Amino acid sequence: MNINMEGRIIDEKKIEAVLAATRSPSSQVILKILKKAREKKGLELKEAGYLINLKEKALREELFVAAGWVKNEIYGERLVFFAPLYISNYCINDCEYCNFHTVNNQLQRKKLTLKEIEEQVKVLIDMGHKRVLLECGEDPKRNNIEYVVEAIKRIYSVRTNKGNIRRVNVNIAATTVSNYRKLKKANIGTYQLFQETYHRLTYSRLHSGPKADYERQLTAHSRAHAADLDDLGIGALFGLYDWRFEVLALISHAQYLDRILKVGPHTISVPRFQAAPTVIFKPQYSVSDNDFLKLIAILRIAVPYTGIIISTRESPLIRKRAFQIGVSQASAGSCVTIGGYGRKDSQPQFKIHDSRPLEEVIKQVVSDGFLPSFCTACYRRGRTGKEFMELSKGGEIHKFCRANAILTFAEYLEDFSANGLREQGRALLKVYLEKIENLYLRQETQKRLLKISSGRRDLYF
Ligand code: SAM
Ligand code: SF4
To answer: Whose alpha carbon is nearest atom 1 of ligand 2?
Structure first.
């Protein structure tokens, strides 16, 4: 499939022209765009270009306020938590930025057995997680689709007295429609794949191996969609090329998916390049903290319906700020080595900057007034793809999000939290319960909270 040949997904010349044409926006133009942002309909590339080029500190603060407002309108105050699970670091690609690249012969290569996967999952469940993001390198022999499917099945099968994993999202190499069908059959949540950089020349400089095929990467979401996977995640690895270009490319990609597949991206991930043991790549385009926060805010406004994901690559301070300006999902308590949960060995894929345990992260976000969520309701209720988008675009999804966040956080408080957090958490639940406007939904949530306190689990709308 070569559907990008005529630049239908990413038109580099157009993106560069937009960046040049929007170089010096007036305050008036910015304020007009921020006013439009509050209509929650997204932005044109040119409008996003103006925001990218804004320089005044006061206007940047206005942008942050508008982005935080949009996030709240769409998703409410909830923040969904998950953990990555790396099952194999075998990889035949040589991505210059990644420690798992095939040229790394100092790395002890490891592929988890199903039994080892089970052990890792037990650790994650006993931490409080309900959502996992499965990750592995590309190796058609060792990490073939059958192995990935068996791994997913095993993850879903594990139960401890603290519960089970209820949603497995997947971040594996671009593949064929028939392989995506197998993922669909295995009942995955979101299929995520990052373009890394949308800039062709940079892409070809940084990759070799099958992933070096830019088109294969860019068109993967269409193949996944053809296999009926309709919750799709996109992303760029910031630091590989100019962040301004990548932001407009991400928006173009989102608009393409929305226009052609009628389903925009379920999530946008914003990983930032981090140092890694054998990686000698030095980013020429490293993104400052200020620009990083700015780009999150712009994405939130430009693609209001999407989930924005931040990982533990970022420090607690940056994450705290990012939560206020548009991020709606975050990993926590993460380990980016193979089989590293509950152990301290093996080389990571890259350095992480938030190594706090899940409970500590939860404490912090509760103190900041957010509602932690372990919700997995939408895909289990069939609210995926178009159906999810309609609710999200219509500003209706937060009604489900709030009630389900309350129920899943109540479970967390019962099963995992110690005194202190438990009291603080219960007080927060009360506040948000009162905010459920629909009387029936509020009463029903209240009833379910009672059931949870008497031992029932996994209640959702
Ligand atoms: N191997 C698959 C792939 O490349 O698509 C699966 C996921 S890979 C384990 C997850 C992501 O980690 C990559 O898509 C890349 O964006 C990110 N990554 C790789 N090296 C990184 C680094 N040094 N710093 C931050 N993120 C990195
Ligand atoms: Fe392999 Fe993915 Fe790392 Fe590239 S980013 S070397 S494909 S694990």
So the answer is: 137
